[in-house]
């Protein structure tokens, strides 16, 4: 049996800049149809927000661009609507993206021995791939402070 989807209003607000760096994005969800304040999901970096919005192709490229534009300035706001089987599944998915931080990662390419460095937006324990200038791809897992290559 297919479970009916519920539509949730997910609200984003850009927090003020800190020392010239873009502020984080506060994500919250309206679970009461406006009867009470939205429930806070967490703070997201721009990278985490873009990754989340692109996940499962729930939002078109034009919609993602419009969201990014709306959040381009301090205190920018935008609301998106997503269908989920229930509040629990929606919150579980969004909570996985909260707590992301931009942090430096460093690794040495096994093929050409070049030192590589990049700034990534990730949560602790997140695994992603980065390519060296020679084209060799390395899987990196973020840790509490720095990332280590695996």
Task: Describe, in plain words, how this protein is organized in 3D.
This protein has 150 residues and is an alpha+beta fold. It has 2 domains: 90 residues; 49 residues, no CATH class. Helix content is 19%, strand content 39%. The chain contains 3 helices and 9 strands; from the N terminus they run βββααβαβββββ. A 4-stranded antiparallel β-sheet has the order 3-2-1-4. A 3-stranded antiparallel β-sheet has the order 7-8-9, with no helix packed on it. Strand 7 and strand 8 form a beta hairpin. It is globular, with a radius of gyration of 18 Å. It starts with 5 loop residues before the first strand and ends with a strand.
Topology:
Blueprint: E1 6-14, E2 25-30, E3 39-44, H1 46-54, H2 61-70, E4 77-84, H3 87-95, E5 101-108, E6 115-122, E7 127-131, E8 137-142, E9 147-149
Antiparallel strand pairs: 1-2, 1-4, 2-3, 5-6, 7-8, 8-9
Overview in brief:
This protein has 150 residues and is an alpha+beta fold. It has three helices and nine strands; from the N terminus they run βββααβαβββββ. It has a four-stranded antiparallel sheet. Strands 7-8-9 form a three-stranded antiparallel sheet, with no helix packed on it.
Distance between the ends = 42 Å
Determine the number of helices (DSSP H or I, runs of at least 4 residues). 3
Low-confidence stretches: 146-150
Q: Give the tally of β-strands.
A: 9
Shape assignment = globular
Strand content: 35-45%
Order of helices and strands: EEEHHEHEEEEE
Average residue pLDDT: 81
Described by strand count, sense and barrel closure, the largest sheet is: 4 strands, antiparallel
**Can you tell me the number of structural domains?**
2
Structural class: alpha+beta
Give Rg in angstroms.
Answer: 18 Å
- Major beta sheet, strand line-up: 3-2-1-4
């Amino acid at each position: 049996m297919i479970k009916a989807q519920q539509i949730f209003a997910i609200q984003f607000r850009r927090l003020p800049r800190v020392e010239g760096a873009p502020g984080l994005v506060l994500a919250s969800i309206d679970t009461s149809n406006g009867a009470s304040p939205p429930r806070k999901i967490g703070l997201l970096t721009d990278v985490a927000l873009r990754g989340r919005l692109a996940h499962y192709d729930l939002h078109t490229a034009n919609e993602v661009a419009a969201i990014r534009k709306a959040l381009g300035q301090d205190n920018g706001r935008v609301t998106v609507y997503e269908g989920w089987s229930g509040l629990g599944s929606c919150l579980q998915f969004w909570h996985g993206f909260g707590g992301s931080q931009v942090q430096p990662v460093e690794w040495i390419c096994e093929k050409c021995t070049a030192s590589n460095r990049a700034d990534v937006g990730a949560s602790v324990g997140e695994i992603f791939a980065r390519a060296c200038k020679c084209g060799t791809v390395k899987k990196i897992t973020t840790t509490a402070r720095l990332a280590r290559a695996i």
